[in-house]
Amino acid sequence: MSVADHAGPLFKKMFPDSETARNYSCGRTKSTAIVKHALAPLSKEGLLETLRSWPYCFATDGSSDEDEKLFPLLFRFQSPSSGFVGMGFIDFAVCNQATAANTFAKIDNLMTIYNIKWSNCLAFSSDNASVMLGKHNSVFKRVADSSPHVYPLGCPCHLSHICANKAADKLSIDIEQLVVDLYYYFDKSSKRKEIFKEFQEFCNVATQKILKHTSTRWLSLMKSVDRVLRQYEALTSYFESCDDGKKGTDKSAKLAERLKNPMTQVYMLFLHSVLPVFDSFTGLLESEEPLIHKLYDSIIKLVKDLLGKYVQIQAIHDSESLLAMHFDDETIQLHNQDLKIGFATRQFIQAQDLEGTPALNKFYKEVRSFFSTALNYIRNKFPYQDIVVKNAVVLDVLRRTKVTFSNLNALIQRFPHLVKDDDMDKLENEFTDFQLLSDTELPNTTVILSNGVTIPRRIDEVWHEIYAMKDPATGVARFPVLSKFIRSVIIIPHSNADCERLFSVVRKNRTEMRSSMGVGTLAALLASKVNLFSSTTCYNFNPTEELLQKAKKATVVSLEK
User: Fold this and answer.
1) φ and ψ at residue 130, rounded to 5 degrees
2) Cα-to-chain-centroid distance, residue 179
3) Nearest alpha carbon to residue 107 among 61, 67, 76, 153
4) Are 142 and 161 in contact (CB under 8 A)?
5) Secondary structure of 52-74 in the HEC alphabet?
6) What's the start-to-end Cα distance of the chain, in Å?
7) 10 Å Cβ neighbour count for 322?
8) pTM of this prediction?
9) d(C-alpha 323, C-alpha 315), whole Å
10) Is the pLDDT of residue 246 over 80?
11) What single DSSP character describes residue 531?
12) Cβ(299)–Cβ(278) under 8 Å?
């Protein structure tokens, strides 16, 4: 907003012959007023109309701000006109004493102010904290009291992060802490960075800085480990030659000792080989497009990928249920030399002649514990047995011939208010008709990019065309009951990444230079960005006459409040 104070004088200097530039007057105060009382209300109008008339999914999470704890009111919905499943933002609930009762009261108060009914809420998404999703005393429990059929969903991305962390705890060499220590050793010292550049040049490696790993960031560890491995020779040389005058006690000596130990590199190479398994799972589910129909398959793929690292392939094939098998049984596990610890890891072990050493035997034992811990956590915490997750595959039009009406019926049993009993026979007939569609009758399920690459279309785009299909004999809607039900189920979120994306935007707007920005101004900015300018650019935005009138009156309205 502060740039607005300079924009007017700048325009006058740039365009001295322009009457428009001479008359331009819109400083910080007026700009703030326009955002709060013109743009933000406009950005919420269509969203509120949809939320009051159609099912929606609600998502929230607590910010990590020290001064104020913000809980965003985020909504996932399907546009009635375009069929696009998107995210909308309304406001922030401020709750510094974030108990379940207080948090819900603050959120519920805003829901009442905006006249949004909980009865339209189909699903509640948050992180996996008990205060948000606990069975007895949580925000979800209070939402469920207002909407009995609401579906709770934690965040599989967060679960994947915890899963990897718990598995890594079984390794005796803490690679995560080493990466953090390396970053902070160089972080504030330009002298150390400059000296390190000399070693990078000497070792003929790229001049790159050590990346910061944040324990709460889902995908940062892999990038940090990869960077350290690429700089490993230069780092080892740097710390071996480092002399701070406190041998054996200073940070550099301790880091040198850890880096010089060949087992450190073995453990790091192992993590470098296995972390992509978790990252690919998390990366897929961070997508903004609706993917609830892929969540179950993604969990099973994660399980298979981990089992294949240390369990005999035949044992995996013979198992009727992957997560029910006794993968801790060493008789079905691979021998040490066959464990999938990564090609680079195996090459390094051979080059260093470590095979058969006590340290490597200990490493193999910990690798088995790593995989067993990860799989046990998935078995106990991941929603692979959830009714919605297992049966949402009905949304996948390419698998329509492989699913049955029982899959659809399981979803209906979970959300019985979405289909009337009198419509069940009609729904079954429509579902059969849908399954019998030939590939030529289906809408295109792929799209060709400008570079010639073919990718799958968003599932909401495909279903929007199916909604519009007409019966060839009568010309009326072909799937009216099925379409109404799918419109609801397709908006169920597959993760809570929407909240993380919003907090990322918050951090870019509420910076150290703008730390005094009020919650009202911040909420108005985000509403404008998320609801209005996520699908169009500011220079392509055409304001209506009504918006222009509101903008002209915005300062007066702001001063009156």
Assistant:
1) -65, -30
2) 24
3) 61
4) no
5) HHCCEEEECCCCCCCCCCEEEEE
6) 20
7) 19
8) 0.91
9) 12
10) no
11) I
12) no
Kindly report the three-state secondary structure assignment for every residue of 401-416.
Answer: CCCCHHHHHHHHHHCH
Q: Which residue has the tokens 């969990």?
A: 299
- 43, 528 contact by CB (below 8 A): yes
Sign of the four-CA dihedral 384, 390, 392, 398: positive
Q: b or e along 203-241 (b: 16 or more beta carbons within 10 Å of the residue's beta carbon)? A: eeeeeeebbebeeeebebbbbbbbbbbebbbbbbbbbee
Counting Cβ atoms within 10 Å, is residue 401 exposed (0-12), middle (13-18) or buried (19+)?
A: exposed
Contacts for 165 with CB less than 8 Å, ≥ 6 apart = 176, 215
DSSP-based three-state secondary structure for 454 = strand
What element of type H or E holds 552?
helix 545-560
Inform me whether the pLDDT recorded for 515 exceeds 70: no
Q: Give CA separation, 1 vs 271, 379, 415, 473, 510, in Å.
A: 45, 49, 45, 59, 11
**370: which DSSP letter?**
H
Is residue 227 within 8 A of residue 183, CB to CB? The reply is no
Please report the DSSP string for 286-307 in residue order: T-SS--GGGHHHHHHHHHHHHH
The whole-angstrom distance between residue 180's C-alpha and the CA centroid of its chain comes to: 23
pLDDT tens per residue, range 387-440? 999 999 999 999 999 999 999 999 999 999 999 999 999 999 999 999 999 999
